[in-house]
């Protein structure tokens, strides 16, 4: 937590969910209203195929819909890609860029990620820019160095606390059930805050820094209580309304 920053719990459904998953989304919206919404914002980033129906399901409630990636260009000959304008048109308010699965599966570089963040803003979306070290980098003691490089390379200079959220996701913690220690999370997030100052100047102090990687209801309170952790980016546990809401509920007693 950071005093003065309203936290965000964001779900990333990844390549999961067809029409039948909309019932789970409706359950998230219902459970969130009148409860966790007092303390925390919520977002679910669904597959592009579900975005329009997801945003209809969520309506004008407190849980927002987002995309998981966008192309840097607005339109054109890019078969299979989706632009930020298309996501916005389908009801997105946010888009994740630079997720480690995109960096690995699609060889996305920091330069590509930065251009996608600019594309997100062009369409009026908030960019959630992700970075994090691999297991080998952590073992080699390079975590902070990798974070510095990814932050310098992936975050455009004119990022603000309104148009940008950053997410620290150690690659080895994603989907593994493993999480860094509270001390390691605190060290990484403090480092991220200070590196953000180099690219975002005064905006850095107000920018939300999410933690992602095996966040569950059972560990949410401990992780979300860490200084400079301003919410969570949740994969597997966001697919079940009870788990996602359990994570958001952690803010009730923080
Ligand atoms: O990659 C993640 C969210 O973007 C984290 O995934 P898990 O919560 O399944 O570890």
UniProtKB/TrEMBL annotation:
Places the protein is found: Cytoplasm
Annotated residues for binding of substrate: 12-14, 175, 214, 235-236
Major subcellular location class: cytoplasm
InterPro entries: Aldolase_TIM, TIM_sf, TrioseP_Isoase_bac/euk, Triosephosphate_isomerase, Triosephosphate_isomerase_AS
EC category name: isomerase
Record SUPFAM superfamilies: Triosephosphate isomerase (TIM)
Active site: 99, 169
Record text on subunit structure and interactions: Homodimer.
Known function: Involved in the gluconeogenesis. Catalyzes stereospecifically the conversion of dihydroxyacetone phosphate (DHAP) to D-glyceraldehyde-3-phosphate (G3P).
The protein's name: Triosephosphate isomerase
Source organism of this protein record: Aquamicrobium zhengzhouense
Lineage, top ranks: Bacteria, Pseudomonadati, Pseudomonadota, Alphaproteobacteria, Hyphomicrobiales
């Amino acid at each position: 937590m950071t005093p003065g920053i309203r936290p965000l719990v964001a779900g990333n459904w990844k390549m999961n969910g067809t029409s039948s998953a909309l019932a789970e989304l409706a359950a998230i919206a219902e459970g969130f209203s009148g409860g966790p919404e007092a303390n925390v914002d919520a977002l679910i980033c669904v597959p592009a195929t579900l975005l329009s129906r997801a945003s209809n399901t969520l309506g004008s409630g407190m849980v927002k819909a987002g995309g998981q990636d966008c192309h840097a260009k607005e339109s054109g000959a890019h078969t299979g890609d989706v632009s930020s304008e298309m996501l916005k048109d389908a009801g997105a308010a946010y888009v994740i860029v630079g997720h480690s699965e995109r960096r690995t599966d699609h060889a996305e570089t920091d330069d590509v990620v930065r251009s996608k963040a600019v594309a997100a803003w062009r369409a009026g979306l908030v960019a959630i820019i992700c970075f994090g070290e691999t297991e080998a980098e952590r073992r080699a003691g390079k975590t902070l160095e990798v974070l510095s490089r990814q932050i310098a390379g992936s975050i455009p200079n004119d990022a603000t606390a309104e148009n940008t959220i950053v997410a620290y996701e150690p690659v080895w913690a994603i989907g593994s059930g493993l999480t860094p220690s509270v001390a390691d999370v605190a060290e990484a997030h403090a480092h991220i805050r200070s590196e953000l100052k180099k690219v975002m100047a005064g905006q850095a102090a107000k920018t939300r820094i999410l933690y992602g990687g095996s966040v569950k209801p059972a560990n949410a309170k401990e992780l979300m209580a860490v200084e400079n952790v301003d919410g969570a980016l949740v994969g597997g546990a966001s697919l079940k309304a009870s788990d996602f809401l359990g994570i958001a509920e952690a803010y009730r007693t923080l």
